[in-house]
Here is the input.
Amino acid sequence: MQQATATPIFLYDDLSEARRVLHLEADALYQLAQNLDETFENVLEVLVKTKGRVILSGIGKSGHIANKIASTFSSTGTPAFFVHPSEASHGDLGMITQEDTLIILSYSGDTAELSDMISYAKRFAISLIALTRKQESLLAKAAHHTLLLPSSPEACPMGLAPTTSTTLMLALGDALAVALLKRKGFSEKDFKKFHPGGKLGKKLLHVSDVMRPYKDLPLVTPDTLMSDALVEMTEKGFGCIGVFAERNKLIGIITDGDLRRHMSPSLLSQRVEEVMTASPQTIYDSALAIEALGYMNRKGITHLFVLEETTEQLTGLLRLHDCLIEGLA
Here is the structure.
């Protein structure tokens, strides 16, 4: 006789618990945003004026958050790195200079492992910023500026595991990084410089980064015989040819499709202007390459001649194939 399998019993509903955690942390973030005052602006001013690097530190979960904040700073134009407080006590304090600014994360502000870093900052007059919950803590008292976290309970049912507090620290780090980014006028071009790899870097490529330059383009004038145009088109191997008039102005394009449509015994004796497609699709060299790829897909074309934005003169050629090579698709 087959024995019935016991149905598992849950002490609480999983989704309800997940929602409780998210609502609790969202409420804490809202309170943090409401509590921001001139201290945040003072900290931002210190970071803007820092001649050296921004050093982040913390122990345990706070240390992991500090490491992430340092990474965010670095990728958005503020040189920063993480120093572990235990390693700092064994020689890594030498990585911190008087031109640096030190940001220490600690929920309690009284963590013993941080004492050597705090003493070092005080001894050598290094700018010290605290990110903590307790205004009366040793860290807060030693710091030049203290960013206080709101008194929000941890999402952990026992109130012990760092959950809400680390979320607040991470969000405050993001707020500082983005505010710094805007203060410094950090641009999309700068962002691409620090993110050359991966999908993010690819999405920030401009047409000018991917296009074939003017010197390599297959180009003819409208009165050129098709016999000569085909030689130029074949030699360059781009699958198309541009037709230009005076002052480097593009007026037409001939593609494989145009050749098929005009295929006849007289094709080679015809002039280019009789075969070309006038007023071809173009794009500016300052446009994002991913935008150009989308445009080609929508129009069902595989080539885009590129114009310089201010003069609208021909400057290059973007092919769908080149976009695929760059991994934009």
Observations:
- The two ends are 59 Å apart (CA to CA).
- The chain has two domains: 14-186, 207-325.
- DSSP finds 15 helices and 13 strands in the chain.
- The chain has a mean pLDDT of 88.
